[in-house]
Amino acid sequence: MLTMESSYYLESFSRSMDFPQQIALTTQAVTVGRSADSDVIIHNAALSRRHARLEWIHNAPAITDLGSTNGSFVNRQRITTTTALSPGDVVHFAGVEYCLKQKYLTTKNDSDDHTRINYRTLPSNFPIRAREFTELLTNGMVTSYKQAIMDCSGSVYGYELLGRGRHPALNENPYELFLIAAQMGKEIELSELFRQRSFALAQKTHSDKSLFFNCHPLECREPDKLLSGIYQLRKQYSALQLVFEVHESAITDLNVMQRIRAGLRDLDIGLAYDDFGAGQARLLELAEAPPDILKFDISLVRGVGDPSSTHYKLLSSLNAMVQNMGVETLAEGVEDQAVADACQSIGINYFQGFYYRRPVEIPC
């Protein structure tokens, strides 16, 4: 049976052998600092001589800052009182980063090693909320929203499917979730989970409209795996009318895009290039692997309300060029009537934005 002394430990992300890889949290309080009389010595000028104390309070590990100059932090928040710790918490002594972990087997205690790290700002090698994020993936704790896409007549042409988190301890915003996923190397898993849940919910609504769904740019690096996953979903949800969105940043390899485009056509799934104009407009890929629909980024759409403006002239020229290639166009981020009217006069095919509809949750 494990003793309390070996149950929890702080682990460093760095693989340097010059400082403690692990700091065991024992039932006896220990001090951390750079002075020789500290129980755990970290040779780093950013730490105070007696920087913090690690101890057990109410049968749980805790940390107390000892009035240090540069502070102690839990999950990147500076602490001012004794703070309880849980597995997965990220702890900083000034700029020296550790993560609290729980061990189930006795391992070697390397707490006599020393560290030398330059302190500038809080490093972020360990993801905050890693345990909660793992629960989200394991238990499928996500849902889906949909935002209407309108046609020129003012009717709903389709919907974009938008993933959201549903873990009580995590932000539901997909941007925040993908930040955690990136630190854990789980971006593709999160993207696949959003896709699975979006299709399942859309199937229940008996939607007969086109449904636009996304991928993470990393997925395009493994096109065979991507298409295999989409194939499985297509078999499961064969009645859905689907349009696959590829972000402009993912369109980096012409051969890959041609393979993806051909694979999607075999599955009777449309292709859209998303956020065109947000970064480097890839005109070669547009010509050699044309999508069915091209979505103009909000950065191109914003400001076109004035027909005499440079924005209006640029968008009008791009729209004419794209449509001459046989590709339909969609304006993203339409937020007011002036922009909506301008996009209509330019001749764009479809429209999306708060002016028309805000995203709404798809009922379970």
Automatic annotation (TrEMBL):
Residues making up the signal peptide according to the UniProt record: none
A Pfam family this protein belongs to?
A: FHA
**Gene3D superfamilies to which the protein is assigned, alphabetical:** 2.60.200.20, EAL domain
Organism's domain of life? Bacteria
- EAL domain span: 126-364
What SUPFAM superfamilies does UniProt report for this protein, alphabetically? Answer: EAL domain-like, SMAD/FHA domain
Q: Which InterPro entries match?
A: Cyclic-di-GMP_PDE-like (IPR050706), EAL_dom (IPR001633), EAL_sf (IPR035919), FHA_dom (IPR000253), SMAD_FHA_dom_sf (IPR008984)
Q: Where is the FHA domain?
A: 30-79
Supply the name of the protein: EAL domain-containing protein
Please report the organism this UniProt entry assigns to the protein: Zhongshania borealis
Source lineage: Bacteria, Pseudomonadati, Pseudomonadota, Gammaproteobacteria, Cellvibrionales
